């Protein structure tokens, strides 16, 4: 039996704005932006696209009503207590994060702290299995 080949599709999340926050669009799954034959390549693309998303948005306060809706944990590079982080106003967190001045490494760390995914990977079988 031949193993079925798989593609890994990186998809940009489509967000909707409701005059208060951005939420994942319910009417669409997202927009495919790249296809890879290995999971490793797709994960690298996902990481870079998430960092690019952070650089373009600069402020994340519009993606939730509180820090717990935007972040799953405090970024390691911030020098503050985790509990204090989640009690802090999201606009103030944006000021503390200061995305424009962060290194690639810091932005990758921040990307791993998000509660939402600006991009995601879907594994798709290619052709007909034998």
How would you sum up this structure in a few lines?
The protein is an alpha+beta fold. It is built from five helices and five strands. It has one domain (6-125).
Q: Order of strands side by side in the largest beta sheet? A: 4-1-5
In angstroms, what is the radius of gyration?
Answer: 17 Å
Q: Uncertain segments of ≥5 residues (pLDDT<50)?
A: none
**Proportion of beta-strand residues:** 15-25%
| H and E order | EEEEHHHHHE
User: What is the helical fraction, as a range of percent?
Assistant: 25-40%
**What spatial form do the alpha-carbon principal axes imply?**
globular
Tally of contiguous helical segments: 5
The helix/strand class is alpha+beta
Number of strands: 5
**pLDDT averaged residue by residue:** 90
Determine the oligomeric state from the structure.
Answer: single chain
Number of structural units classed as domains? 1
**Main sheet characteristics:** 3 strands, antiparallel
Straight-line distance between termini: 6 Å
What topology emerges from the helices and strands here?
Elements: E1 6-12, E2 15-17, E3 22-24, E4 31-36, H1 39-57, H2 67-70, H3 82-87, H4 90-97, H5 104-113, E5 119-125
Antiparallel strand pairs: 1-4, 1-5, 2-3
Describe this structure in words.
It is a single chain. The protein is an alpha+beta fold and 130 residues long. It has one domain (6-125). Helices cover 36% and strands 20% of the residues. The protein contains five helices and five strands. The chain has helices spanning 39-57, 67-70, 82-87, 90-97, 104-113; strands spanning 6-12, 15-17, 22-24, 31-36, 119-125. The strands form two sheets. Strands 4-1-5 form a three-stranded antiparallel β-sheet, with helices on one face. The chain has a two-stranded antiparallel ribbon with strand order 2-3. A hairpin with a 4-residue loop joins strand 2 and strand 3. Helix 1 crosses helix 5. The chain is globular and about 50 Å long. The protein starts with 5 loop residues before the first strand and ends in a 5-residue tail after the last strand. The model has no long low-confidence stretch (mean pLDDT 90).
């Amino acid at each position: 039996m031949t193993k079925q080949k798989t593609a890994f599709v990186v998809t940009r999340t489509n967000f909707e704005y409701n005059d208060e926050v951005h939420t994942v669009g319910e009417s669409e799954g997202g927009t495919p932006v790249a296809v890879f034959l290995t999971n490793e390549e797709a994960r690298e693309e996902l990481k870079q696209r998430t960092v690019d998303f952070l650089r373009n948005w600069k402020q994340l306060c519009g993606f939730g009503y509180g820090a717990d809706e935007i972040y799953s944990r405090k970024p390691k590079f911030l020098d503050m207590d985790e509990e204090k982080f989640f009690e802090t106003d999201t606009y103030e967190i944006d000021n503390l994060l200061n995305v424009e001045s962060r290194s690639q490494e810091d932005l990758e760390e921040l990307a791993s702290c998000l509660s939402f995914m600006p991009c995601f990977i879907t594994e798709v079988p290619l052709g007909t299995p034998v």
